Structure formats: structure tokens, C-alpha cells
## 1
Amino acid sequence: MTTQTWIPVRYGAYVTCILASCIALALTTLSVWWLAIALPALALSALGTWDLLQPRHTVSRNYPVLAHFRYFLESIGPEIRQYFIFSDTEGRPFSREQRRIVYQRAKNTLDKRPFGSLLDMDHPGYEWINHSLTPVDHSHTDFRITIGSRCAQPYSTSIFNISAMSFGSLSANAIRALNHGAARGGFYHDTGEGSISRYHLEGGGDLVWEIGSGYFGCRDEQGRFSETRFVENATRDAVKMIEVKLSQGAKPGHGGILPGAKVTQEIAEARGVTAGEDVVSPPSHSAFNTPIELLEFLDRLRELSGGKPVGFKLAIGHPWEWFAIVKAMLETGRHPDFIMVDGGEGGTGAAPLEFINRLGMPMLDALLMVHNTLVGTNLRDAIAVGSAGKITSGFHLAKTLALGADWCNAGRGYMFALGCIQALNCHTGRCPSGVATQDPQRGSKLDVPLKSERVFHYHRNTVQALGNLIGAAGLQDASELGPDHIIQQSSQTEFRTYRDIYPFLEPGALLQGITGYELFDHYWEEASAREFGVPSSVIRFSRNPVR
């Protein structure tokens, strides 16, 4: 079905009001009672016209008149919102409280709440940060870290940035708004594996260029990696770091096909493919096959880019494959400048339900494994570690940093700042907020100056919230956050710190073989720097062992 066939549905209420007012006004010549219909219809027609002209609410611009029914339900109160708009069901990936925080901070409105907490503070699983009697003022602090200190062009980044979301998944105006907001706030915008589009370059924001298995933006005609094309993009001033995507949290180990009908001229231009032809993203890379080859590939990218920080993103799956990469670092002396850990709860425009719910390690567990492995091999100080997965608030930042991350990225939080209402139509192209669509009539309704302002405010207010939290805890810097600062209630009569809940390796423990951690003891020795193979112990206990 073409996009145009949906226009009457979106504008149906508005057009109906106009027609009703015209007919009713004409019939007033027969009876004055027709004014009872004409006047309300005229008022709704005026409201619909205002909806089309105002820039603040993209949903109203795409659904004039009709959108106000949704806004009415939202305005009634928390009870109605809970059951009709923001119900916390399995199909809604974010809670009411999380979305409320994002919307208020993006609109730069007060996030104060009367009558105390809405959370059940006596419920097992409740988490908090203990405060100090000697607090510190961090209300105007911009927390930053430097990545790639050994590179010719190291990069100083904010502690909170925009996760990978490609042009093609998001609309042109959504990309514009994100990039303008990032430029104003001094944080980076990850391109996603769809490469660098013209819209990524308009706002002047810093870019992290993500390269996936399709090598978009750096591929030859056969879809293989092209050094020439890579240099053209990697040496752009806007590109600050290069990130090779090994896997992503939302659909790890899953390739994809972008049908030719969706490959517009703009998408083809950004990805280096032919417009109108199917584009395949293979499940795995063709530029390397072993852990050592991966590290050699990263070193080559660093050299070709002129010395910019180069790293990789992965969602943790088989632990022995991650251990194999670290063993390759120890054996060769090569290592990435950074690692982005993507949690299994990460989002995407569309993925099989089993992949979304049952594939990939959750973010905190994956982050802890990466952090522990690098600490246990004395590599942690040489490699910066970022993390992403349902991070929307200052507290989410705090607990992720406490478990070992140096910085965090967010995707859906910034989408909410753009006006996403979680209509769950990302895969259909019928996004009512103009964020996740390639329909130019829908996407063009997203007002770039206004939404970029909200992206900026969301980032600033969330980082400020983190500063307020660690200041109340008496910490001088976000880097001082550790597992002792986050508390979790394990039962109605017991609470424990993250240090009590999670295992933490001592520096060099893996090299000395004294981890005391069953996962490392079981798989570390069998992992090989020369292959991503299955350990013999796994084969031995499989249902149909290879003979």
C-alpha cells in the first residue's frame, strides 16, 4: 500500500469538519437550527487549521483535530494515562515515569513532583543512591572523558550521547534535529550503520561513524570493504571516532535486507548503493574472520582515518568469543581505543519477537563482563568503555557508570525528546510523530529548530540530574561512582550494595588464574585468540556432539 493512501485517514477528521461546516452553513438558509452543527464544525475546522500551522506538536500536524482526543486522555489524570496511554505492559518498553522524565526535561519544564515518590520503596528490586552529609555542588558541571589518548586525534566526549540510529530508520528531519541538538550541547551523534547522510552534516554536530557488516559508506560494488571510500568519509572533520559494529543488542547475529522499494536516492547516496535495488546486510563481517584479524582491521582503520579513535560495538553473546578477542589483545599488543557495550534490551525499528525478548545478554551483566575481563587482564586503563540500553535518566547513568562504564549512550530517550509517542509503527513507515518514517509528508511535519532545542535540553537536564545525584552523594566527579554507591533492596528486610550483588575481579586476576568467578574459570582457558570457535567443553556436553 502506498503512503499516499493513508493521507485521507490522517486528515479525515479535519476534512470532515470542513465539509460539515460548509454543508451546515448552507442549510442555515432553510433553518437556523443548523447553526448548532455549523458553529462546532467551524470551531473544529479552525482547530485543525491551527494544528497544521503550529510547529510544537508533530502528531497534531500529522493528525489535525484527531490528535486532540489523545491529548485529552493524557490530560485527565494518572489513572486514565495508566490504562489508556502509558500502560506498563510487555508491549510498552518504557514505563510512565521514564517517559514523563524525558518529556519534561526535553521541554525544559520543572520535573518536580508533589506528594513524594510514585515508586514502591519497600518492594524488592528498588534501587537508590545513598546521600552524604557533605554534598558537593555540581549543578553546572559538564562531565566529559577523553577517548583515544594514544591516538593522533583523541576525542573529548560528553558522558551522555546519542546512540546509533540510521538515516533510513529515522526521517531526515529527525536526523537534522538530533545533529543540531548535539552541536549545541557538545555531545556526539552516532550515525548508525546506515552511514553518513547529508543530514548528518548539516548541523555541525560531532559524529561517531558506525560501520556494520554491510560496510555502508565504505563499500565497493560487491559489498566488500573499500579503503578508498572509507578514507573519504573517515577524514571528514565532523567524524570524531569510528565504531565497527560486531553486533547490536536489539537483534544480535541477525542480518537484514532493505527492499529496493525503500532504497531512495538519498539513502543510496549515504550508503553507497544503487537506488531501487535490494541491499543486503550480512550477519557477519567479511573484512575479518578471527579475533586477531579484527584487531588488525581496527589498527588499519585508525591509520587510514589519520589517527582518530577506533573501537567496536558488541552485544555479549557466547562469553568465549569475547574472551577470544581479549586474548588476541594480550597476544598481539593491539587493542581498540574504546568498546561500546550494547545491552540485549536495546531497541530497533523492527526485529523478530524472540530476538527482542530472548537473545543477547542484558546491559548491566554484559557491561560487568567486559569491565571485569579488562580489569582482570590489566587492559582496563587502556580502553574506554561505553554502554547503552534503556538509559533515560540521571539515575540510569549513575548506576551504569557505577558498574564500570566511562560514558553512556541513549536512543529511545532522544527519540522521546523528538516527540516519539511509542505508537510502535516504526516498521510500517506510518510514524505519527514524523520520527521513524521515510514518508516525506509525515517527516516534514517535525519542526527541526524546536525539536533540536528539546534534544539539547534533554541532554543538559539529564547530565545536570546526574550531577545533582553525585553531588548529593558527596562525590567530586562522576568517575568516582562505584558499586558501593548503588543500593538495591533484595527483600523487605534486606538491602545490598552492587558490590555485594555483583562479582568484581581484582587487577590482573585473569593473568594469575585466581578469579574465583565460575564463568571465567569455565571458559577463559579454552578461548583462543586465533578463532571464534566453540570450546571443547561446550561440544562435549552438547546434545549432538561433533565427532
## 2
Amino acid sequence: MIAEVGSFALILALAVSLAQIGLSAIARVRRSAVLAAAGEGAALVAFLGVLVAFAALMHAFVVSDFSVANVAANSHSDKPLLYRVAGTWGSHEGSMLLWCLALTGFGAMAAIAGRGLPRGLKALTIAVQGVLGVVFLAYTVFASNPLARLDPAPVEGRSLNPLLQDPALAFHPPFLYAGYVGLSVVFSLAVAALIEGRVEAAWARWVRPWTLAAWSMLTIGITLGAFWAYYELGWGGWWFWDPVENASFMPWLVAAALLHSAIVTEKRGALSGWTVFLALAAFSFSMLGAFLVRSGVLTSVHAFAVDPTRGVLLLAILGVTAGAGFGLFAWRAPGLAQGGVFAPVSRESALVLNNILLAAATATVLLGTLFPLIREAATGEAISVGPPYFNLTFTPLMAALLILLPAGPLLAWKRGDARGVLQRLWAAALIAVAVGFATLLLVSPRHGWGAAGVALGAWLIVGALAEILERVRAFRAPAAESWRRLTGLPRGAWGMTLAHLGLGVFVLGAVFETSWKVEAAEALPIGGALDAGAYHVVLQDVVGVEGPNYDAERAELSVTRNGQPICAPSPERRFYPAGGQSTSEVGICYQGLSHVYVVLGERRAGAEAPVWLVRAYWNPWATLIFVGPGIMALGGLISLSDRRLRLGVARRREQPA
């Protein structure tokens, strides 16, 4: 009965979203406050309907109601409670319901938090958000019903993919979808502004908080996914340029460009057309990601394997929605205001260059992701595009961007002073060069590019600190005055500094882990040993263990350095009887910022005794890879709390149309 209530609530949400479109559109035409309020109320009701459906599906997973087809295909009564809850969004149907929940939730937030928007622009935004809700709710109801019944119901389910039975993967999709779908409000604001024919500073002021919230959630979601891949898949790395990884990375890059472009539009009224274009592109890339993951065109551990028919429907949704948005842009963009002019050396120019490099980097990722699919469709020949391509194309673009990044905030608007910026950053440049040379001489003289990367990370960190010190004139004013200015800085300034500093921390971790990583692999009997760098790993024993829904072989290892015991990791090979699948659980020793990472492989028959393949890695400074994005996301959330970006700002006097 609960599943039927959920299905009814989902259909009701679809009907109410249709009403949301009609009421809000008519309210804009008739300039009716009553109809506008009714449209906003419909947005809230649609969200509540999807929330009821989502709660019904979660209840079915928790109580193991195998009469629901989605539960029977993706759950098992032996699964721990956390993974039964996570199974709600662990399938194609459940993930689409989560997408609809986030979409209608952001629509409800736009209705509640949009008090400062001009009435006409807000009504159109709610209407466009309703259109997106109708499209995805209709797809979910008619093509991917998560609450469909099975008759007769099976006695037991087939269980969730064991790779997804992990705490990081339990929380990864909600954060990722909050970022993906949060960009829908930016898309709706852009379409509404194009219909109104007005893209101005006040509009950009409203775009920024939504983009910032979505970008922060995407950052957390991508980081959780990278951390899961690092310690769950057992290959020793954290990013492989997998097409599904790229599908989440492209919206993140475009959202980062949009954040910087919207600043120019808000402060100077310039780049309005480009800002609108990025607002449309950001959510379009999110929808592209939904298509890639769910269409069956990709083979990936991250992808949902579904039938091609539903993939075609998703492609149609992407084509119609994005096509309509960009078609409207092509029609209305020539009439948008051009904004103020600025000198080649200015903060505006620095942000334009930032956008060019981010756009080019996104284009390289897009090409590397789609080219194999296009080539296979055209010729039938399967090829792969891997890390070498991205290292040659993406890395130089991002390196150029990171070199220029600290200078941008120190330039003045309209006309800047390049010499003055160099004078303010000379100490940061000197420290970065010194760090690079010290790394080259002390760590390894054979890794010149690695030392250059370390210098780049130091440049970003010291440059971010130099920018905040320049804001308070730390070296030009008395200490008491500098402290007063420091404590009085707006949260937006602190957030920007933390985001840039976190990026530098990530670069340090990524460069060290990539350049100085050590790997060793050997088939070991009990008592056998191997060396990974300075660490000596001994296989003490392998024992059988029984988990809540799996059986496992657990290795008991000892790790020493210079004869001193360091830790005793216990990697496992697990077998899940319900799904007939095996996985590896790695053992990680945390040594400061570095990791000793050990994987237990398959058991093999030896000449005298069984042996196990053991792989060990020394990953220097790997912790910074995950701490850096966390600092970046924290910076975004701190900026979002700035009263100047708060969603509920007071209403400004509405300008005449």
C-alpha cells in the first residue's frame, strides 16, 4: 500500500508541475501577484509529492519489500541497514527519483528564497523550473518507475552491486546530485532573463549564490567519489579520466567559469552574454552526464547499465531542453547590453582569461570523453582515450590558469597596474621557486616536472595568503589596524581565499602522489615479504572471516620501516553470495600525509604452499588530494553565508520593464 501511495504522489507531483508552469506563465503575462503566489505554491507541493514518493521507496528498501521490482533487483535481506537505505538511489530508477527530488527541491527553494527577484523574472524562473520538473518527472513515471510492482514477488532479492556497498558511495550521490541539479536554477534564471531581454548586475547577483551552492556540492560529491575509487577499487589511484568521472568534472569546470564570469557581470555589467551562455551550458553538461551514465553507451563501474530505449529518451530530453535554451540564446543574445569597457590589464581581463582557459579545458575533456563514442558509432571501431591524452591537453591549460590565478584578485577593476601586482607577489614567487628547487635537490633531481608542480602548488597557497594580507594592508598599517581589518573582512573574501588555497593544497598532493609514487607486487606465501620504497611489508597470515552479507579472506600484514613497526593493515578479498561477485578491500596505513596502501589479490597454488598476489604502494602526501577539495568546498560554503550573497536579501525597488 505504501508503494501505491508513493506512485500516486509521484503522478500528483507531475500534474502539479504542469500547473506550476501554467500559473507562473500566466502570472507573468497578467502581472498577477495572486497567480504568481499560486505558481510558487505549486512548486512546493510538487516537491512534497516527490518527497513522499522517495520516502515510500526508501521504506520499501528498509523493510525489504521484494514485491517492488526495484527493491528485488537491487537489495537483499542480509544487507546492512545503511546499504539498504543507500539502495534507494543505487539503481537507475532510484537515482532518477533522487534527481527529481533535488530538482523539485531546488524549485521550491527558488520559490521561497526569491523574495528579492523582480516579480516577472521570478515568475518566469519558476515556470522554467516547472518545465524541467515535468520533463524529468514524466520520464521517471512513464519510463523508469521506481515503485513498479512484481507479481509474483520473489522470496529474496538480487542485492546491490558490492562495489556500491560503501559509506562513501552511500553519501556520494546525494551531494553529486545536489550539485548537478542545483545548476537547474541557474539554467532557469538564464532562460527567464533571455525571455525578459534583460541581463544585468542584479540578475548576476542572483546567479552567483545558486552557482556557488551547486559548485560546492559538486566539489564534495566528486571528492567522495575519488576517495571511494581510491580505497575501494584497489588499483592504487584516485582519478583515471573515466568517462563517468569526466561527466561530473565538466559541469564543475563550467560552474567555476560561471562563478568568475558572474562577478564581472555583477561588478561591471560586462560579459552578460557569456555569463548567460555558461549558465545554460552548466546544466546542459549535467544533463549530458545523466545521459552518459544511464544510456548504456559507456562501460564503467560507475555507470548504470540500462536498455538503449531509455537512453534515447534521455538524449531526447537533453536535445530538446538544451537546444531550446541555446536557441533562445541565439535569438536574444544580440540584444543584450554589452556593459562597460576595460583595459587589457585589469581584473576583468584576468577573469576573461580565466574563463577562456576553463572553457578550453572543458572542451578537451568533452572531446576525450565523446570521441571514442563518436568513432565507434561512425566506424564500428572501438578505441579508448586515456590519461596520456588528458595529460598532454588538459594539464598545460590548467597549469597556465593556476600560474595566473593569484594575480587576478590583486588587479583593479577597469584598469589595473601589472607592475604593482608583481611587486605584491614577488615574495610569493620567490618562495614558490625556492620550494621547487628544494624539492628538486632534496627529494629527487630526476623529477623536474614534479618539482615544477610542487612550486606551482606553493605559488597558489602563498599567493592566496598574500592576497588576504594585501586586503588588510598588513605591512603598511599598524598591527592593531591590520587586525581590525582582518577580522572585518567579509565572508566572501575569506571564502575566495580558502578556495584558492585549497586548490594549491590539492595540487601539492596530486603532484607528490603522481611523481614519487612507489609500487611493488609479488606472489607471497605466508611469511613472504616485499618492499615498497622504504617500507617492508610481510604477509603474516591469511584467515577466513564472515561478514554480514559476505565471506572474505583477510590478510594479516606487518609494515616496518628501518626495522621499526609502523602498522598492521588487513586487506580483504570479499565474496558476496547473493550477487556472486568478488571485491577487494584495501588496507591503508596513514603515515602523516602519506599512505602505505596494500591490496590482497587472488589465491594461487604454489609449488609447496599457496601464495597470494600482494600489491603495495607508497603514496606520498596522498591525504592532501582529498583535504584540498574539502577546503575548497568549505570556502564556497563560507562565501555562500556572506550576507551580500544570501538568498533572502531584501527586495530592491522593481525597475519598469
## 3
Amino acid sequence: MADATITGGLPTGREARPASPEPMLAADGTLLRASLARSLRRQKARALLLIAPLLLFILVTFVLPIGDMLFRSVENAIVPETLPRTVAALRDDPAEVPGEAVFDALYTDLVVAEEYKIHTQLGTRLNYEFGGASSLFRGAGRHVGKFDTDVYADQFGDANPAFADPGRWAAWMADDAVRAALPQTTDAYDAWAKFTVDVHGDDPAEEDLGDFVYAALYRDLAAGAQPPGLPSVDVSGFEAVSLKQQFVDDDEGWGEPEIWTTLRTFSPRFTAGYYLNAVDLKIGPQGIELREGSDRIYIQLFIRTLILSVTITATCILLGYPVAFLLASLPMRSANLLMILVLLPFWTSLLVRTSAWKVLLQQQGVINDLLVWAGVLSDSGRLVMINNQTGTIIAMTHILLPFMILPLYSVMKGIPPSYVRAAKSLGANDWTAFWRVYFPQSVPGIGAGSILVFILAIGYYITPELVGGTKGVFISNRIAYHISDSLNWGLAAALGTILLAVVLLLYWAYDRLVGIDNVKLGG
């Protein structure tokens, strides 16, 4: 056996195993890695607490309103909530003009809706889709309580006096077996009891039942229901009432297929109808189709809004660039004095400034009077500069011009004058030095001012409303109308969502073409 050679106290052929390093500890004796991780979490928590008020502000004032707008633009709960029984009955009746079962459900729904005074809101909503729906529902709401359904109450009372006793009805409707045997009666009684308490503040066990409850009881018993605990009554000899005929006699519109097509189309809780309306389309019997010529206004308004906003932005650039250049070139004392004149409009109410333009621009206004006095115009040839696009462009350019001048001035003030002097010393004339050296450095200011002016212009509605007439209003004026006057919030939300999408698309295109990184608010 060969002798083993010992090297450094270890046998040859075996590698020395390095000793395990001691874990690095923090000052408090914990592992350094864990201590660093804990410290980093604390720093993140402190940073989150510092920005939490701003995040909450953005969430409450920006994210939640936009989310609500997106929801309202597709939400359509008013039809199924106001006419739940009718919507359910229509699913089983595909006829263009449905049968008695649907009209029975409509009768109950309208009686309940009239008590809560919500049938007019439904009519207003459907009137945007089908002209005449509003008057149809208003008329039905006024007359539905006078339909000849009291014959059922009289006949049940004659058959057994217990049917006229509200206390007995309350006891019957507390019995689960009775409720299961009489589904339509139970539904009608519950609705009657609810509005008796909610609207009238009365006790259902002490009030006479509504006629529509007896009509529902007749339908249940005629269908063969045999409820336990109720007095036995044979309804085969009862006088029956055709609610369909009474609706049609009240208004022939209930016998036409258009109103029923509209109800079927807009019975789901979510609909694309608002967005279709916002682009001059509608859902017809054959699917999506164009609206009538006189109703196609929104695409035109969107195009007009974009064109006028771009025109106003370009006008602000043309007028604001020389002013900003002058301010940046003057000594600080003179520039500050002129800057006060630029900011002076901010000290005056927007409404006052816009009203002043109405006085200046009208045909008998100051500008036309001066032009006639100077002989530029004849008295019969006065310019029409109000209640049209010209008035909108002039007034909004005046209002938004400071938002173009301020970013331009801020950027131009940071351009070193030595660059232009160097270009001239190398042989460039004034124009070449400006165009090749100065102007490219001012482009970020143009970009910042353009974004500010364009975004403000595309959402303005007060100024166009006052000076634009019918030819100079923006899509924002229509949004404001649907929010405050027509109360068609769904269509207003759809229009606002499309406008937001257009702005984001233009912003993306601007970033691709120019680069948002080139936008600066200062040098």
C-alpha cells in the first residue's frame, strides 16, 4: 500500500472544502438581507402615505367620473326596471303585436309605474328611439286607472265577501302555499302593498285592493290554479275584459308594431344604442341602420368640433408666436409690463368676455360701425360675424390665446441669444438664423401650447353657445344639452366617451409624429 502524501494536513486527492461564510448581521442582530427588505418596505409605505391624498383626489375627481360615464353610456336599466313583467312576457311572444298576456303584464306595470310617477321617464327615454313613445306612455299613465278592470273586483266580491276584505287578503298572502299557487296574484299584491306603504303611507291590511290585483287573481284561477285556504269560486262564468283592446282603444299606437319592436330592442339592461345614436345610427327591425336625414347631426358636430378646434389652435399659434417672441426679446422690465397685458383677460369673467364679443361682432356692433365710418363697408354690407363659426373662432381665440403665449414665452426665454448671434457671425442672414437656429428650439413651446389650446377648445361649450348660433356650436354643447335639458344622460355619456377616445387618439398620433418628449413648458 502506497504511502499517502500529506499536504497542508490533508490527504492528496481530496479537495479542501471552504468553510461556510458567516451570515451578515445588522446592528440589531437580525439578518442584513431581512433588515434591508424591511427598511425598503417602510420607505415605500412612507412614500405611499405621502402621495395618498393626491391618489385619492385623482380617484374621486377623475377615475370614478370616467368610470361612471363609461357605465352610463351602455346602461339601460330603465326599461326592465319600469316594465319588468312586460319585458319577461315579450320573451315568450314573438308576434309583431303581442297577445293578451303581454298586455296583461303591461297593465300591471303601468299601474305600478304611474303610482311612482316613473312612466313618463320611460316614455322620454324611448322617445329618442321611436317618436311618439313619450305621448303614448303619458296617455296610458293617465288612463290606465280608468280601465274596466273593476268588474273583476265586483264579481269576486259578489262570489264571496271574503275577497273584499283586506285583512283576509293579508293573511292569504302570508301563506306560502297560497303564494306558490297564485304567482300572478302574489306578484300583483306585493307590488300593490309596496306602493301602498311607500307612496301613500297606508297599511295594506286596511286598504281596498287595486283592481289590477283582482285581474291577476282572475288570470290565475282561469288558468286552473287551486290555491288552498281560499274560498272556492268558479270563474268560468265571469265577465272577462280584453286589456289589449282597451289599450288600443285608448291609443292606436299600442296596436302598431313599432312600439313593441322598440321595447324588445331596448329591454336588455345594457345596450349599444347610445353609441349608435352618437354616430347617427339606430337599431331598426332589420338591424343597424342610418337615421333619417334630419336626425343625422352628431357626426357633423364631431367634424365641426375638430375642424374649429384645429383652426383656433392654428390661429393662436399665428398670433401668439410673435407676441411671445417679442416678450422673450425685450428687457425684463418691459417684458413684465407687457406680460400683465397678456394675463389681464384672466382677471375678467369668461362670461363677461364672451358677452363683450357679442357687442363687438354683431351687425350693429362696434367693429361694423367703425368699418362703415371708415368707408370700408357700406351700411347695407355689414359683416355677419356673430352666431356663426366666425364668431366662435374670434371669441375662442381671444380667450385661449394666453394659453399659447405662456408656454411659448417660457421656452423662448430659455433659448440663449448667443446661438442666433453665432449663426449671424457665420454668415447667416436674419431669416436663416431665425428659421434654422431659433425656430427649431421653440418647437417644444409650440407643442405644449397647441396641446393646451386644443384640449381646452375641443371641450368648450359656453362661448360657442353664446356666439356660435346654430353653425358654430360644438359637440360639447350637445352633451351639455342632454345632461341639463333633455336628461338623456346615456347619450351624453356616449358622446363624451367618443370625444374622449378621439382626443386620446389624436394625442397618440401627436406623440408618434412629434414626440411628447419634445413638449416643454420651460427652457
